[in-house]
């Protein structure tokens, strides 16, 4: 039979483990003022709308998605981007005259500080 103390320890352990798994606090973006040009112009992109789909490993939460979205949105010709840590993909919509290459899109994601993400072409 479990003592109250043992049960309490178990609950604490469970909470700690849950926090550790869902952690990623340090990756949560600081509420920085959005970059007017990029943030205003770039909108979410569904899988169907995407001109480019990149495979992106290393994302574990919406904070990671934000980091990837910002890296892609900063590139010229990007009209929209939605990174998904669930799909492990980034859906990207490009302007008709966009000259940005797959290599540049991939490099931008791989260049996010902390060496957190690895991108590759999916289509
Ligand atoms: Cu994250």
At CATH level 2, the architecture of the domain at 36-121 is: 2-Layer Sandwich
- Global structural class: alpha+beta
Strand percentage, roughly? Answer: 15-25%
Bound molecules: copper (II) ion
Gyration radius from CA atoms, angstroms: 19 Å
Number of strands: 4
Q: How would you sum up this structure in a few lines?
A:
The protein has 123 residues and is of the alpha+beta class. Helices cover 37% and strands 19% of the residues. The chain has a domain at 36-121: 2-Layer Sandwich (Alpha-Beta Plaits).
General description of the model:
With 123 residues, the chain is of the alpha+beta class. The protein has a domain at 36-121: Alpha-Beta Plaits (2-Layer Sandwich). Helix content is 37%, strand content 19%. The chain contains 4 helices and 4 strands. The protein has helices at residues 4-22, 36-41, 62-73, 102-110; strands at 52-57, 78-84, 89-94, 118-121. A 4-stranded antiparallel sheet has the order 2-3-1-4. The longest helix has 19 residues, at 4-22. The model is unreliable at 36-40 (pLDDT under 50). Bound molecules: copper (II) ion (CU). The site of copper (II) ion has 6 residues, from helix 3. Residues 24, 27, 60-61, 63-64 line the site of copper (II) ion.
Supply database-style keywords.
single chain; 123 residues; alpha+beta; Alpha-Beta Plaits; 4 helices; 4 strands; 19% strand; binds copper (II) ion
Topology:
Blueprint (H helix, E strand, L loop, with lengths): L3 H19 L13 H6 L10 E6 L4 H12 L4 E7 L4 E6 L7 H9 L7 E4 L2
Antiparallel strand pairs: 1-3, 1-4, 2-3
Copper (II) ion (CU) binds next to helix 3.
């Amino acid at each position: 039979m479990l003592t109250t103390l043992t049960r309490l320890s178990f609950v604490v352990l469970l909470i700690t483990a849950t926090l550790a798994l869902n952690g990623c606090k340090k990756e949560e973006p600081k509420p920085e003022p959005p970059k007017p040009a990029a943030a205003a112009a770039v909108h979410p992109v569904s899988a169907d709308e995407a001109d480019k789909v990149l495979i992106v490993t290393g994302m574990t939460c919406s904070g990671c998605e934000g980091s990837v979205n910002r890296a892609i949105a900063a590139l010229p010709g990007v009209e929209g981007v939605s990174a998904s840590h669930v799909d492990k993909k980034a859906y990207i919509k490009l302007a008709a005259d966009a000259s940005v290459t797959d290599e540049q899109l991939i490099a931008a994601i791989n260049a996010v500080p902390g060496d957190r993400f690895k991108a590759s072409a999916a289509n």
